[in-house]
């Protein structure tokens, strides 16, 4: 089933054409306009989506060798995310759906991330555990079947990517800091500082990253600027080791408790080099999407949309944007 898909929930504008789990085109523009603010500015994000979505749609159709007439449905992220950003994609998709008389399907961004792994690994079948790790999310999900989820745990405070970005900011690095911290960490000593792991009282599979973030802040404040500059790689390595250990230990608990030995790690932080090295050492089968499908992208919304449409799901033209939408 051929689907035209849109993703505008945060600071990536993305348009894709997919045919079931096969991606025919995926055009993504990451907004660099936010980097000097150290975080995403919603007003700027919405305006940039609006500026590019039309020409990117033409490009995605061209690259896939399809016309609007070939498309059998329109998929769009309707939450969670920034309201004004979501609105651009949803209004654009609704307009096309109505004008072309093609079905509209609203997709939960988190379901999109879960489906992103099927693009490179269509052989992966439920049940499996999906660890969604990005700038906005940290969720541990039991995928019992296609479209059937049990939320096992989530972050009680910061998302893991957010913790990376905030630590990067404290160290004077630019946004988004995750990839920079990862790179520096690879050349540092991970035993240099012992950052504390959180003790979670509520929920066995929940996460917390605000404690380690504060520990890094206090550590930096207690040392001089010269010391921090000299040991920036060691601080990054120590932080990264603690974060990856937290993610791995919690995931391993779920693997053992639910007797599911397949794990998918999805979202921007799934690009992390230590995570990619450590998870396969401890879990029998680990699946990662390739880079363009880890970052926010419309292809993952398209494959989830194609699956839902093929099973008869439809959204009405009243589809709202839901900034706080949950997976289940
Ligand atoms: O999935 P994504 O593109 O957008 C959200 O839905 O948030 O994820 C972006 C996040 C940012 O916080 C970024 O710093 C983080 O993923 N990230 C990384 C790495 N690459 C991207 N974090 C740690 N290590 C990386 N290599
Ligand atoms: Zn995302």
In terms of per-residue confidence, which ranges show pLDDT below 50 for 5 or more consecutive residues?
none
Assess the beta-strand content as a share of residues. 15-25%
**Gyration radius over CA:** 20 Å
Derived structural class: alpha/beta
Compact description:
This protein has 328 residues and is of the alpha/beta class. It is 44% helix and 20% strand.
Structure description:
This protein has about 325 residues and is of the alpha/beta class. The chain has eleven helices and ten strands. It has helices at about 40-65, 85-100, 110-120, 160-170, 180-185, 210-220, 225-230, 230-260, 275-280, 290-295, 300-310; strands spanning about 1-5, 10-20, 20-30, 75-80, 105-110, 130-135, 140-145, 150-155, 260-265, 285. A hairpin with a 4-residue loop joins strand 1 and strand 2. The protein is globular. Bound molecules: 5'-O-[(R)-(carboxyoxy)(hydroxy)phosphoryl]adenosine and zinc ion.
Keywords:
328 residues; globular; alpha/beta; 10 strands; single chain; binds 5'-O-[(R)-(carboxyoxy)(hydroxy)phosphoryl]adenosine; binds zinc ion; 5-stranded mixed beta sheet
Secondary structure topology:
Layout: E1 2-7, E2 12-19, E3 22-30, H1 42-64, E4 73-79, H2 83-100, E5 104-108, H3 109-120, E6 128-133, E7 138-145, E8 148-154, H4 160-170, H5 178-185, H6 210-222, H7 225-230, H8 232-258, E9 262-266, H9 273-282, E10 285-287, H10 291-294, H11 298-310
Parallel strand pairs: 1-4, 4-5, 6-9, 9-10
Antiparallel strand pairs: 1-2, 2-3, 6-7, 7-8
Helix pairs in contact: 1-2, 3-11, 4-6, 5-8, 8-9
Bound molecules: 5'-O-[(R)-(carboxyoxy)(hydroxy)phosphoryl]adenosine and zinc ion.
The site of zinc ion has 5 residues, from helix 3.
